[in-house]
Each structure stands twice: as C-alpha cells, then as structure tokens.
Design brief:
It is a single chain. This protein has helices at 6-34, 36-40, 53-83, 86-103, 114-137, 148-175, 187-205, 207-212, 227-244, 246-276, 281-309, 311-331, 348-381, 389-402, 406-422, 432-447, 453-456. The protein contains 17 helices and no strands. Helix 3 (53-83) packs antiparallel against helix 14, helix 6 (148-175) packs antiparallel against helix 13 and helix 15 runs antiparallel to helix 16. The two termini are 33 Å apart. With 457 residues, the chain is mainly α. It has one domain: Growth Hormone, Chain: A (Up-down Bundle).
C-alpha cells in the first residue's frame, strides 16, 4: 500500500469500525435505557402486586447476566487471540443481538410475559458484552498509541449519534403519529414494533466492519485448549501483569467499580425519569435523543482531550460530575414530580419543575458517561501486551462483571429502603441515585493512585 493511500484506507477502517457502535446502539439506547426498560418495568407487568417489583426483577436479571459474563468473557476473548477469528466471532454475535432485539416484539404487556422479557434482555446483554470484547480488541487494527483516545472517543460518539437517529425514527414512525404503519394502534404494540426496527438497524449498519476489517492469523501457533487450560492461561496472564504492569491490574479493579456505576446510570436513569419524575414514553424518547446528541459530541471532544492530558484525568472529571448529578436527582426530588394531569394532588407547576430539573441534570450526567467509557478503553489499549488484545479486554469485561452485582444490588437495597420510607405503593426509584453516587465515589477513589503509562515511562 502506498503512502498516499494508506491514511485514507486507515480512516475508512476507523469509520467502518465505529459503525459497529452505531449499528448496535439500539440495544443499549432503546432496549436497555429509554424504551424497553421503561416498558418492561411499567405497571402492566406488575399486575395487582407491588408496583416496584418489575424494577426489582430487572435488577435481578442484570445480576444474573453479569455473573455469566464474568465467567465467559476472558476465555472467549482469549479464544479470539488464539484462533485469529475475532471478526468472525463478532459477526455471529452481532447477528444474535439483532435477532434477540427483534424477538422482544413477542413480550406482551402482561405479568405473564415479564419472565420472557427478562430472559431475552439477559441473553442479549450477555452476548452484547462478549461481542464488545471482540470489538474493543480490534481497536489496534484501526489506530495506534498516538490516537487511541481520538479513535475510541469517535467510536463511542458514533454510537451515541446512532442512538439519536434510531430514537427519532421510532418517535416519528411509531410513537407520534395518530395512525402508525401496519395498522398498529395501541401504545404497547408501537413499542414492540420498534424492537423489530432496531433489530433490522443492527443488521444493516454493522455490515461495514465485516467488509473492511478482516481476521488475521495469531502471532504464534496456538493449539486449541480446553476450558480448564484456558482459565489457567488467564490466571497466568494476571500474574504476568501483576509482575510487570501492576498499575494495569489496579486500573482493572478501579474501572470495574466505576464502570458498574456508569452501567447503573444507563440502566436506571430512564426508569427514574418515568417513575419518579413523571416522564411519558414520548418525553423519555425526546430526552434520550437530546442526551445522545450532547453525549456524542462531548465524547468525541473528550477523545481529543484524552490524547493530550491522559485518560485518567478525563475519567475523574466525568465521575465527579456524575456524583453531583445523582445527588441532585435524589435531594431535589418531590413526590409531586411523578404525578400526571388527572392524578390526585396534581400541580402543573410542581410537575413542570421536576421535568425541567431532570432535563438539566440528566443532560449533564449523560454528557460525561460516554467520555468516561471511551477513556477507559483508551487507557487499557495503551497497556496491552502485543497479541493479547482479546484476552485483556476479556479481563476488562470480567473484572467489570465480577462486581456488576454492586450497581443493581445497591439499587435494589436503596429502592427497598425508599419504598419503606415513602410507603409501599408510592414510587421510590429515585432512591437508586444514592446507591449509584456511592458506587461512583468508591470507583473514583480506587482510580486516584493508579499511574498511567506515560507517568511510568
């Protein structure tokens, strides 16, 4: 390849790589955060029982998925390094994500379908996380140490912008029209039909990465090994890192905690908006579109900053902003925020104040989640031994999932405490903000003593 064509080819590779984030974003934006999560934790799935039960069940499902991911991620990531089939494996998992997303159409608004919805969500989360290990491992094929931050931020930003567009399409096609296409009338059918659209979106927009980025042979001949031997090699890698790159191990531990806090913000933010601040499905989609636009632009900008000041400072800035935001969400909340017109005690001025507060604070919080995630990826990419990308990013996923019970557990505990304080039939989901803030503080504290590679060279 000539010197004149190489940069262009590399840029095309970056764009194709980043489109995977764009293509799979519906699962995280629409399913996990703004639409399906709100739908499945709604009153239709509670029946005559505790209105907070669907939210608790969602937390339990998150814990189950996290345990499975923690067990599988490092071994499957290591397998990609050994066989050289990282792209092939990513393709199959991407197709599975698309199919599972579309299958959410079959989750009808009835307590009897709560288990089906949770099962599909959990399976999709497991496959999505393992797919992300392979996707992250490909970053060194489209970038290098000089621009890891820029490329990582661009990929995460593309994901956010893709999330905006898919939310707007859902809004225009399924939510706002009086007459939705295909004879769809009820609100639940509009949500379910949107899941099919999201599955098709994933199939189409992930095609470029499989065209532009190809599998390559492993650096050295590596025979197939069994599960037990795979775990032996994982522990050998950890021992090697402890002896030669100890601060990378420290980072894996610290990032596990703060990333679980970020996951909690994503998973429960829209639920808090709906149940404790009275947002309708349409308002949540509007908020999600605005949040993704701001987050996408800020993440790309912070990617440039990452390469200049280092990912650690970027992460600490983001975590501090999130802690303040979560505390405001909790302490500023009033019971009237969750009421709708027609409810007993409804006050339009109070409800409006709640909506404005959540819009402002929620947008600030949303803007810094992406930069923290992208900076974490670039931090690790700078410290990976050659030929071990899949394995190390597998460890990154595993350490995160090994403690990923913390976020849903703290949410479960704080919602339960809040429910006892405000009364069993009143919404108490905003109490989750206290648990999330605590987790983010602990993560930031663990990150403070970690040294970046540039400070060790």
């Amino acid at each position: 390849m000539s010197q004149t064509t190489a940069p262009t080819a590399k840029k095309r590779g970056v764009f194709a790589w980043a489109l995977w984030d764009w293509g799979t974003q519906p699962y995280y934006t629409v399913v996990t955060t703004f639409v399906f999560a709100v739908y499945l934790t709604g009153s239709a799935f509670a029946g005559d029982g505790d209105p907070n039960w669907p939210s608790r069940a969602w937390a339990i499902a998150t814990i189950v998925g996290s345990v499975v991911i923690a067990v599988l991620a490092p071994v499957l990531g290591q397998s990609g390094d050994r066989t050289g089939h990282t792209v092939r494996d990513l393709r199959f998992m991407t197709w599975a994500i698309a199919g599972i997303t579309a299958a959410l159409y079959f989750v009808a608004p009835d307590p009897a379908y709560l288990l089906l919805g949770l099962a599909l969500f959990t399976l999709g989360t497991i496959i999505g996380e393992i797919a992300s290990v392979n996707y992250n491992a490909l970053i060194d094929r489209v970038s290098d140490e000089k621009n890891f931050g820029k490329v990582s931020g661009f990929g995460w930003g593309m994901g956010y912008i893709g999330g905006i567009l898919v939310l707007l399409v859902i809004l225009v096609v399924f939510i706002l029209p009086e007459q939705a296409p295909f004879g769809i009338e009820t609100s639940d059918m509009r949500v379910r039909a949107a899941m099919v659209l999201c599955g098709v979106w994933t199939l189409i927009f992930t095609i470029p990465i499989f065209v532009r980025v190809k599998d390559r042979a492993p650096l050295a001949a590596a025979p197939r090994v069994g599960v037990v031997e795979s775990y032996k090699q994982v522990f050998a890698t950890i021992r090697r890192l402890w002896g030669t790159q100890r601060h990378t191990v420290y980072f894996l531990i610290a990032s596990a905690v703060y990333r679980d806090g970020l996951a909690g913000v994503f998973s429960f933010g829209a639920i808090i908006a709906a149940t404790s601040y009275g947002f309708t499905t349409t308002e949540i989609i509007y908020f999600g579109a605005a949040a993704n636009l701001i987050a996408g632009l800020v993440t790309m900008a912070f990617g440039l900053l990452d390469d200049k000041i280092g990912p650690k400072i970027v992460i600490l800035i983001c975590l501090g902003t999130l802690v303040v935001s979560e505390l405001v969400i909790f302490f500023a909340h009033q019971p009237g925020f969750a009421l709708h017109d027609g409810d007993a005690g409804y006050d339009a001025a109070v409800a409006g104040q709640g909506h404005l507060l959540f819009w402002v604070v929620g947008l600030v919080a949303s803007s810094v989640c992406g930069p923290a995630q992208a900076a974490g990826r670039s931090f690790l990419a700078r410290n990976i031994p050659e030929g071990h990308s899949g394995e190390i990013f597998g460890l990154y996923a595993t350490t995160g999932r090994a403690v990923s019970f913390l976020s849903p557990l703290l949410v479960l505990i704080t919602i339960s405490i809040g429910s006892a304080v405000v009364g069993g039939q009143a919404a108490a989901q905003h109490w989750a903000a206290i648990g999330l803030a605590l987790l983010l503080v602990v993560g930031a504290g663990l990150l403070l003593p970690v040294k970046e590679r540039r400070s060790l060279d």
